[in-house]
Amino acid sequence: MGEMHGLLTIGELTVDDVVVEDDCADWKQAGGGALYSAVGALVWSNDVALNSVVGTDFPDGLLSSLDASGICLDAVYKSPHALSIGLWLLYESDGTRRQFEKKRGATFADLDRLRASPYTAGLNPLGVHIAPQSSQGQVLALEHLAGRDVVRTMDLLIEPSIDKTPYLDGCVFRELDAFLPSAQEVRDVWGHSDIHALSNWLSEHGSNATLAIKRGSDGVDVLIGGTVTNVPSVVDKLVDPTGAGDAFCGGFLAGLVATGDPIEAAIRGSVSASFVCETRGAVAAAVRIDPEIVERRASKARRLLRKVS
């Protein structure tokens, strides 16, 4: 086995057209859960890679901008067998966001089936985050990681087209070190957002994963040894929450690999999410990463930790 290094995110890389009511329109932005989680990891590490598949129509200029931001693209594959995923992101003046897949693009499931193992690109990461995608894509990602000594974290994507079977039978959670869903995703799959109840369910289905539930502006609840600790949001000025949950996951992975402490990991995730919330677009967020702001916000989050139960 080669030398182990760095962090890896696995999932979607999309081309987004963003329209903001009475304000602006930004065409052909790079997006997707794997990208935003990679940016979150980049806040804490300069050794971050992305594993995804796009069509040959994916703009070379976008890939160049991602490369310039410091994200390794060695495991991003261009496939001639499908178009890239295109998304419309529409923002109304009251902050409401709507997301639509473009008809001419591939679906998440289409591209997930085509994604090759990151190990074929010579990557050998210490930690991997499996970003929101089709459930079949997450099963494939876990198969690619089978037998590897690597920290594994995962988030969910819940859409009408997503097959929930791998979630409801518990199979995808058994090898995870941490499971990082949002409260809404937990409600959509399990019908509640009770962290103790979900932790018990995971244990009954063979998973010892640390559980952290993202609750938007109310921060993140982390369950350890029966005690819930709330890690606060440290956003100064909200511009756009798109990708914030994914960025949290990337920062969490970085913290878990570096320290082994889920609370410290969640603190780092909260800081990562703040950079994404304060701008529009993943690349713009990566450009704004500032080590002094990172440390100041991490210190603030540590001061404001509170026990919930």
From TrEMBL:
Name this protein carries in UniProt: Ribokinase
Matching SUPFAM superfamilies: Ribokinase-like
Domain Carbohydrate kinase PfkB: 27-284
Alphabetical list of InterPro entries matching this protein: Carboh/pur_kinase_PfkB_CS (IPR002173), PfkB_dom (IPR011611), Ribokinase-like (IPR029056)
Organism of provenance: Cryobacterium levicorallinum
Record key words, sorted: Kinase, Transferase
Gene3D superfamilies (alphabetical): 3.40.1190.20
Superkingdom to which the source organism belongs: Bacteria
A Pfam entry, by short name: PfkB
PANTHER family: PROTEIN MAK32 (PTHR47098)
GO terms of molecular function: kinase activity
